[in-house]
Amino acid sequence: MNYVLIGMPGSGKTTIGKLLAEKLNYDFIDSDDFLELLFDETIPEMFAKSEYYFRKRETFAIKVLSDMEQAVISTGGGVVLREENIRFLKKNGLVIFLDRSPDTIIQDIENSTRPLLAEDKTHLFTLYEQRIELYRKYADLIIANNQPIEKVCQSIIEQISI
Q: Could you read off the pLDDT of 102-142 as tens digits, one per residue?
């Protein structure tokens, strides 16, 4: 069984995913990093060719990752845009939506190493509006990420242990 984290860019998927994997003694995989390694191309390079080009490769990477065992998988924010991605991920995984408001994400990223997100705040709100229903629809578990990461991680562990 894998635990798959979905949510907005900046929602804490990677940070919480690493801690969760450590606590569960699972492997941690960032699907964006895996995608770049698999195709020897950065995500911006893929997007420069076209979003379709990127999404097609993302789906292939997700399919490969779905065959893993005992992994916490942090996905890209747009993984929910293709239903087949979710089908692959649910084949062997529980999908956890880390829900974090755009306001909170912006507060955290303004002083971080993610200047593109910080510079285009309107885009973040637009993405949230476009994706929120998909995140909720596909989630097996919804966790509000509005506490320290240790507490969020503990909340996930309590929920998956039920």
A: 888 887 766 555 544 555 678 888 889 999 999 999 999 99
Query: Could you tell me the CATH superfamily of domain 2-160?
Result: P-loop containing nucleotide triphosphate hydrolases (3.40.50.300)
What angle is formed at CA 144 by the lines to CA 140 and CA 146, rounded to 5 degrees? Answer: 160
Closest by CA to 16, choosing from 83, 80, 82, 98, is 98
pLDDT attached to residue 64? 97
User: Cα–Cα distances in Å, from 47 out to 32, 107, 128, 154, 157?
Assistant: 13, 27, 20, 36, 35
Boundaries of every domain in the chain: 2-160
The reported pLDDT for the residue numbered 115 is: 44
How far apart, in whole angstroms, are the C-alpha atoms of residue 159 and residue 148?
17
Q: What angle do CA 19, 69, 52 make, to 5 degrees?
A: 85
